[in-house]
Design brief:
about 160 residues, alpha+beta, Nucleoside Triphosphate Pyrophosphohydrolase, three-stranded antiparallel sheet, about 20% helix
């Protein structure tokens, strides 16, 4: 039944940036106040607009949300995730170069993380990425700590 409901909904395409610094840390940002899952930690990004490529959307979203201009975005993985409020197709891209100072323009927070991630709670769509990073890096053990159940906060 859940699979039938998910297949009946049209997925929303979302470009997601895995920004990795020279020390191998990755950037997580919190969901801004007033949005579904406010306060949950995720990799930054946003919805593709009509006619945009994944890289174009990621470039636009990161400029709008966190104030940086990214260099090349390396397509990495695509994951379909079924949230109660939306079916999303997450297009994950690695980004190793950017220009500008980070500026959280939507009232969100940011954290440079490594495994296990200490920022909590982690958005469910972020958890598989932490597993992929752990596998690549040979990390053994939990990928994140202290999570609470994922219950969406109402959007305002």
């Amino acid at each position: 039944m859940v699979e039938e409901q998910a297949s009946a909904r049209r997925p929303v395409d979302v470009a997601v940036g895995i920004l990795i610094d020279d020390a191998g840390r990755f950037l997580l940002t919190s969901r801004p106040p007033g949005k579904v899952y406010a306060g949950y930690w995720e990799f930054p990004g946003g919805k593709l607009e009509a006619g945009e490529s994944v890289e174009q959307a990621l470039r636009r979203e990161l400029q709008e949300e966190i104030g940086v201009t990214i260099g090349p975005a390396e397509p990495w993985k695509v994951e379909l995730f079924d949230y109660p409020h939306a079916l999303v197709r997450l297009h994950f891209c690695r980004v190793r170069q950017w220009l500008g100072a980070f500026e959280m323009r939507e009232g969100q927070q940011m954290a440079w993380e490594s495994l296990p991630v200490r920022s909590t709670p982690v958005l469910p769509g972020t958890v598989p990425v932490l597993g992929w990073l752990a596998a690549e890096r040979g990390h053994v053990g939990p990928t994140h700590t202290g999570d609470r159940p994922c219950v969406p906060s109402p959007a305002r």
